Amino acid sequence: MSAIPENYLDLLTQKKAFANLATVMPDGSPQVTPVWVDYRNGRILVNTARGRVKTRNMQKNARVALAIADPDNPYRFLQIRGRVARVTEEGADQHIDFLAKKYLGKDKYPWRGPNEVRVLFELEPVSCSSMG
């Protein structure tokens, strides 16, 4: 496991920085989605819904990459390559509400579908690089 450089932790913990999450499609091609992120205990947390492309990809292939640009300075960014270390539905509903508060200032995630099942992915950094 690789540690996130301390002087870039603000991108994960304090700023409303979107991460571009790259996953691997079954044919080996990349798939990229902007996502909200959280950081706990050395891992990046990504919350999504069951049935989405990134969910299926991460369940079949644990390799991922993230690119996170500082919303205040796009020339300052963090790139992380890693792997899915844990997948759970437990606590995922509460976590998406936490992210809605962080990114939207709302107490509840406003786009939840009626039958949506939230899934929480813990990503373990393998290597990190940064600029800025």
Topology, please?
Layout: H1 10-13, E1 19-24, E2 30-35, E3 38-40, E4 43-49, H2 53-60, E5 63-70, E6 73-88, H3 92-104, E7 118-131
Antiparallel strand pairs: 1-2, 1-5, 3-4, 4-7, 5-6, 6-7
Which terms summarize this structure?
132 residues; alpha+beta; Pnp Oxidase, Chain A; seven-stranded antiparallel β-sheet; 3 helices; 45% strand
Give an overview in words:
- This protein is α+β, with helices and mostly antiparallel strands and 132 residues long.
- It has a single domain, classed as Pnp Oxidase, Chain A.
- It has helices at 10-13, 53-60, 92-104, and strands at 19-24, 30-35, 38-40, 43-49, 63-70, 73-88, 118-131.
- It has a seven-stranded antiparallel β-sheet with strand order 2-1-5-6-7-4-3.
- The protein is globular, with a radius of gyration of 14 Å.
Distinct helical segment count: 3
Share of helix, binned: 10-25%
The first-level CATH class name: Mainly Beta
Mean pLDDT over the full residue set: 96
Strand order in space, largest sheet: 2-1-5-6-7-4-3
Number of strands: 7
Provide the low-confidence segments as ranges. none
Order of helix and strand elements from N to C terminus: HEEEEHEEHE
Within the CATH hierarchy, at the fold level, what is the topology? Answer: Pnp Oxidase, Chain A
Offer a concise description of the structure.
The chain has three helices and seven strands.
